[in-house]
Amino acid sequence: MSRDVAFTSRLDALVAWGQKNSLWPMPYGTACCGIEFMSVMGPKYDLARFGAEVARFSPRQADLLVVAGTITEKMAPVITRIYQQMLEPKYVISMGACASSGGFYRAYHVLQGVDKVIPVDVYIPGCPPTPEAVMDGIMALQRMIATHQPRPWKDNWKNPYEQT
Amino acid sequence: MNKLETLKQNLAGKFKIENYKFIHAVGDDVLEVPKEDVPALLLYLRESGQFDFLMDVCGVDYPNREKRFDVVYHLFSSKDSSRLRVKAQVGENESIGTVLPAWKGADWFEREAYDMFGIKFDGHPNLRRILTHHQFVGHPLRKDYDANLQQPCTSSLPIHFNNEPGSPGDVLNDKYVPLNIGPAHTAMHGTLRVMAEMDGETIVRCNNEIGYLHRCFEKMAETHPYNQVIPYTDRLNYCSAPMNNIGYCKAVERLLGVEIPPKAQAMRVILAELSRIIDHTIAIGTGAMDLGALTSFFYMFGLREQVYGLFEKLCGARLTVSMTRVGGMAQDAPEGWFDEVLALCKEIRKGTDEMASMVLDNKIFILRTKNVCPVSAQDAIQWGYTGPLLRASGVNLDLRKAKPYYGYDALDFDVPVGTTGDIYDRYLVRFEEMRQSVRIIEQVCKNVPGGDYTIRDKGIVLPEKKDVYGNIEGLMNHFMLIIKGLRPPVGEVYDATEAANGELGFYLVSDGSANPYRLKVRPPCFAIYQSYPTVVKGAMLADAIATVASMNLIAGELDR
C-alpha cells in the first residue's frame, strides 16, 4: 500500500535534519553558567523539546560541547583534550560572557575566551545567559546544521598544545 | 574586664608580651606578635581552650615596608564566639613557622598564602602551588604583579600525592592502580580533581587538586571600586549568590561604621534564607543525582525555579542578583512581593517534606549514606568545618545564634544538629535547615518594617534616579560618588556571616582609597575540602563520590 508514496530529499539534507534534531550535548559546566544550564535541562525549560535531550558527560558520546562557565589557564589543556576526543561531527557552544571572552575577569588566571583554544560555533551572551537565550543559541546551531553553513574556523583549527 | 585584658594576663609569663601589641580596632581584637612566636602562641591558644577554630590564614603585601608581608591568622572560639586576629610581619626572604601542629586545617590556607604571596612556611610538608597552575611564575597577589598578566599553561599535572611523613609522596606503588577522576567528570561537579591509588575498589590513598576555576577574585577586588566588587561576590558561591553580596556589604558597612535601616535588614534576611533554601536544594538534588537518583534533580530544580521567579521580580536577574549595595539594598521590593514570598513558603514547606520522604526514607539512599565516611566533632573543628557539615558532626554552632546580626536574635528558629557526621546526617541537617529557613522567612515577611530600603548618606549611596535627572544637587552627588568612589577610613575588619555552606568571612583592609587594599574571602568549603583525602582514605570509590556530593563544593568560592 505504501508503494505509491514517494519520499524525495537530498541525502545530505536528510542527514542534517537528523543531526540537528538529535544533538547530544556534553555540558562542560565549570561555574555559574553550569548551574543555569542545569536549569535549562530542568523541568521548567526542558531542553528535550529541542531534540537536545540526553546530556552525556563523556566526549565519546556527545556531539555538542556546551562550554558553560569560566575556563582558566589551568583548565585550558583539559578542555582541548576533551574537544579532541569528541567524534565528528562536533559542535561547540560557548555559553556566557566568561567562556566567550573572559567576561569581566580580565585577570591573570582566566583564559580570555575559550575560542583561544577550541573552535566555537555559537556564542551566547549573558552573565549568565537566561535559559531562553541558551535555547536561542541551540536553535541557532540547529539552523547552522540544517543549512550546511561552512565553518572555516573549525577547518583551520590546530591544537595549540600539540607536541611537535 | 574585656577579652583583650584577659588574654594579656593569660599570656603573661608564658610569652614575652612586652614585644606584643594588643589592639582593639573597628570592633576586632588584634594581636601583633613577632613571627618567631607564632607557632608556639597559636598552639598555646588552642590547647588552653581559648580559641578552638582557625578560620583563616592569609597574607597582606606592603611592598614599601621593611618587612614586606603580614601573615594574618583569624581565630574563633565556639564557647563565647569571640574572635582574635594574630598578625606577624615577614620579610621577603624570610619564612615563618607552620601552625599545622595546632590545626590540621592550616594546610591549604598556608599553601594559598605561599601561592599568592610567596610567603614560606617552615615545616609545611606540601608547600606547593594550590590555586595557580604549575607553570605559573611569580606570586599574583603581590602588589607588583599586573592583574592582567596571563600565563598560558600547556599541560596538566600528572597524578601526585601529598608528602606526608611515612608516605612515598609522588612515587606510585606497583601493587595499586592509580586512578584520576576529573577535572571534567560528572561526579566531580565540573572543576574538581581527585587522584586516588586503588586497591581493587578501595582507596589506599587519595589527593585532590583545585584551582581549575581560580578566577582571581581577590585581585579583581583590589583593582575595582567597592561597589563594583559586589557583582564579583555574586560569582563566589553562585548557588546562593545573594548571601555573598550580603556578607561583603556587611563587612564594608562595618568598616564604614554605618548601620542599615530595618527594612533593608529584613530584606537581606529574606534574601539570605531564600538563598539558603535554593543552595540546599542544589546540594541535595545533585547529591542524590551522584548516587544515581535523577528524579530528585528534576524535583529540586522545579522548586528552585520558583525562587528564581521571585528574584527576577525583585531585580530582573535570576542567578547573579547583585541586589545589595553598601548601605542597604539597590531598590525597594515591588508591590506585593512579600505576599508572594509568603505564598511560596507554603509550597517550599510542602516540597521539602515530599523531597525529604523521597530521599531520606529511600532504602538505597540510606544504605549508601548511613555510617559512610563519618567525621567526628573533634576532627571537624580541627579541619575548620563550619555550617551544615560541622553541625552534622554534632557541634551546635550557627553564627545566626552565636553572633546574631540583622535581628536574627529576635526570630524564633532552631539549629538542627546531627550526631555522627556521616553523609546521611549532612542531608538530614540540610533538610531541617530548609524548614527552619521557611520559618524565618514567614516571621520576617509577616511584619516587614516600614521606612527606607537604604541609608541616604551622600558619600556612600547614590541618589535616586529621579533626583539625578531632576535636580542639580542629585546630579552632582551622583557624579561625585561615581568619580571619587566611596572611601572607608583606613583600617581593617573581619566580618563573617552564616552562609549556606558555613562561615563566609571577609577580611577587608582599607588604605583610605576607593579600592579595597586587600580583600580576603574565607570560603567555607575550602576548609572542608582539604579534609577530603583523609575522610575517604580506606573507603570504597563509590563512597568517595557520595562524600564529594555531600560536601557541597562550589568551585567559585573554593578557588575564588
TrEMBL record, chain B:
It is a peripheral membrane protein. The keyword Membrane applies. It holds the Pfam family Complex1_30kDa. One of its GO terms (molecular function) is quinone binding. It catalyses: a quinone + NADH + 5 H(+)(in) = a quinol + NAD(+) + 4 H(+)(out). Signal peptide: none annotated. The keyword Cell inner membrane applies. SUPFAM superfamilies: HydB/Nqo4-like, Nqo5-like. It is found in: Cell inner membrane. Residues 290-560 form the NADH-quinone oxidoreductase subunit D domain. Keywords: Cell inner membrane, Cell membrane, Membrane, Multifunctional enzyme, NAD, Quinone, Translocase, Transport. It comes from the Bacteria. One of its GO terms (cellular component) is NADH dehydrogenase complex. InterPro entries: NADH_DH_suC, NADH_Q_OxRdtase_suD, NADH_quin_OxRdtase_su_C/D-like, NADH_UbQ_OxRdtase_30kDa_su, NADH_UbQ_OxRdtase_CS, NDH-1_subunit_CD, NDH1_su_D/H, NiFe-Hase_large. Residues 32-148 form the NADH:ubiquinone oxidoreductase 30kDa subunit domain. NDH-1 is composed of 13 different subunits. Subunits NuoB, CD, E, F, and G constitute the peripheral sector of the complex. NDH-1 shuttles electrons from NADH, via FMN and iron-sulfur (Fe-S) centers, to quinones in the respiratory chain. The immediate electron acceptor for the enzyme in this species is believed to be ubiquinone. Couples the redox reaction to proton translocation (for every two electrons transferred, four hydrogen ions are translocated across the cytoplasmic membrane), and thus conserves the redox energy in a proton gradient. In the C-terminal section; belongs to the complex I 49 kDa subunit family. This is NADH-quinone oxidoreductase subunit C. It comes from Bdellovibrio bacteriovorus.
